[in-house]
Amino acid sequence: MAALDLLGRRWALRVIWELHRQGTPIGFRELRRRCDDMSSSVLSTRLTELLEADIAARTPDGSAWRLTPLGTDLVTAMEPLSEWSRMWAEQQGRANQCR
Q: Which residues pair with 66 in a beta bridge?
């Protein structure tokens, strides 16, 4: 339940997705930009929560963020949900075309 609580917080999954999508460490400003310019306070809070959960970490020099191995495992575990969401989106698109 604790994991679902963390992942259900606003913007949490988006932050994880952007850290994964980047593939390399990303700075705070660039991450904020990639997250549709969410407020810096919300991004800071989410990053702190993900840091405390060992899903995200700062680079050794503290200038950027990256996923930890546990965070990468989380993304891998979410792949079936991602695939389902792609199928669902396609189905919704077809359903909307029929209306």
A: 57
pLDDT in tens, 34-50: 999 899 999 999 999 99
Indicate the domain borders of the chain: 2-98
Question: What residue has token string 């029929």?
Answer: 98
pTM value is 0.85
String of DSSP letters for 29-44 = HHHHHHTTT--HHHHH
2-98 architecture in CATH? Orthogonal Bundle (1.10)
Q: What is the Cα–Cα distance from 32 to 96, expressed in whole angstroms?
A: 32
pLDDT in tens, 51-74: 999 999 999 999 999 999 999 999
Measure CA 23 to chain center: 12
Q: Which of 79, 76, 77, 58 is nearest to 67 (CA)?
A: 58
